[in-house]
Amino acid sequence: MSVNAISTTNLDFSRLMASKAGLSGENQTEGADFLSSLKLRMADFKSQSIDTLISSAMQSDIGQGASRLAALFGNPPSPSNAASAPLSTSGRNTSLFDPESAYRMMSVINTREVTYKAELSEMKDMKSYLQRMQQEGIKLGEIDETSTPEAIRSSLQAFADAYNGWIDRFDENLEDGGLLAGTHAATASQWELEKSVENFFNGAMDGVRGMGDLGLSIDPHTNMASLDTKRLDTLMSSNKKGVSNAIREFSANFAKSAELLNSDGNFIPNRLSNLDRVIDYIDRNKTSLQAEFGLGDPAKPNALVAKALAAYNTTYGSAA
User: Fold this and answer.
1) What does the DSSP assignment read for 162-207?
2) What number is the average pLDDT over the span 169-175?
3) d(CA 297, CA 108)
4) How many Cβ atoms are within 10 Å of 150's Cβ, its own excluded?
5) Alpha-carbon distance 203 to 184, whole Å?
6) In which element (H, E) is residue 216 found?
7) Kind plus residue range of the DSSP H or E element containing 29
8) How far is Cα 215 from Cα 243, in angstroms, rounded to an integer?
9) Residue in 101, 119, 77, 44 with CA at minimum distance from that of residue 288
10) Neighbours of 53 (CB within 10 A)
11) Which of 19, 140, 172, 220 is in the most buried spot, having the most CB atoms within 10 Å?
12) d(CA 66, CA 235)
């Protein structure tokens, strides 16, 4: 890879932070962590300049070239071996062969730091909401053949309202361009709960084709749940046993889906663990990274990211 390639790709750092640190998919191996990947990228960046610096050292200004070579290449790369030369007034490390590429890489790190903290705050909230949705599903299991039509209507409407609260809270961030749009753990959670509501096997033994037959459906455009009480009343008048059995089956399956999404080793905990690791690494090493690569441009979060970041800072007391 040439130095120009590094410049044009911004050192591929967003891909580095995602694919190497396990943040683009929770199924990557545990060994592919951010720390080793960053060290690899630092070594790769430094290697782009080595031939030029050796050539410089062979010219008349041997002392200066050798000093720059030692300062840049030095010991095996890590933030603790950052160049000791002071940064320029523009925040660049001018002792590097290509300080601008290094500065841009640090700009990406600054942006990723803010984004990951904001995402962690949102994923923590999602974990809590999934626990609430699990409890809402469990409540429906209390319905049986002795339940009155009014009680059944009220219970299903309460569930629909709780489901819509889930959508109101996260749907904007799950849309294209949203903070969680590229987060598999979040999108899979939304998809799993929606498909659980739409599963037409609930109640099949009693001639019911899922909650849709009871009038509970999800709008494909808004993702909001609604209850058609007329359809529910019609089915209750002809097959109340089927209605109550379908609701109990749905209750068990929905609650189980929400529980599994939050279970150890599954989507949400894995994502939170990955985010914890990368945030901790950046927090511990940001000063030395900046000494090595320059200050980088400050992050400029959009409104959604800024809101989630404020929540993160309130909870964890850490300014981005």
Assistant:
1) HHHHHHHHHHHHHSTTSTTTT-HHHHHHHHHHHHHHH-TTTTGGGT
2) 93
3) 8
4) 8
5) 31
6) strand 216-218
7) none
8) 11
9) 77
10) 21
11) 140
12) 85
Tokens of 198: 């739409």
Q: Which amino acid is present at 53?
A: L
| pLDDT (tens digit per residue) in 293-305 | 999 999 999 999 9
Its pTM stands at: 0.74
Q: Please give the structure tokens belonging to residue 169.
A: 């809270």
Half-sphere exposure of residue 297, counting CA atoms within 13 Å on the CB side? 8
- DSSP lists the bridge partners of residue 227 as 216
Torsions phi, psi for 139 (to 5 deg): -55, -35
Cα separation, 245 vs 143, whole angstroms: 8
* Encoded amino acid at 121, one letter: S
- Cα-based distances in Å from 111 to 149, 180, 295: 54, 15, 12
- CB 28, CB 19: distance < 8 Å: yes
Nearest 5°: CA angle at 30, between 306 and 80?
70
Residue 93 is which amino acid? N
Query: Which residues, at least 6 apart from 116, have a Cβ–Cβ distance to it below 8 Å?
Result: 23, 275, 278, 279, 282
Q: Whole-angstrom Cα distance, residue 270 to residue 262?
A: 9
* Contact present, 215 and 229 (Cβ < 8 Å): yes
Residue-level length of the chain: 320
In the beta sheet, which residues pair with residue 217?
Answer: 226
Sign of dihedral through CA atoms 181, 184, 186, 191? positive
Q: Cα separation of 143 and 253, whole Å?
A: 15
DSSP code at position 16: I
pLDDT per residue as tens digits for the range 204-221: 999 999 999 999 999 999
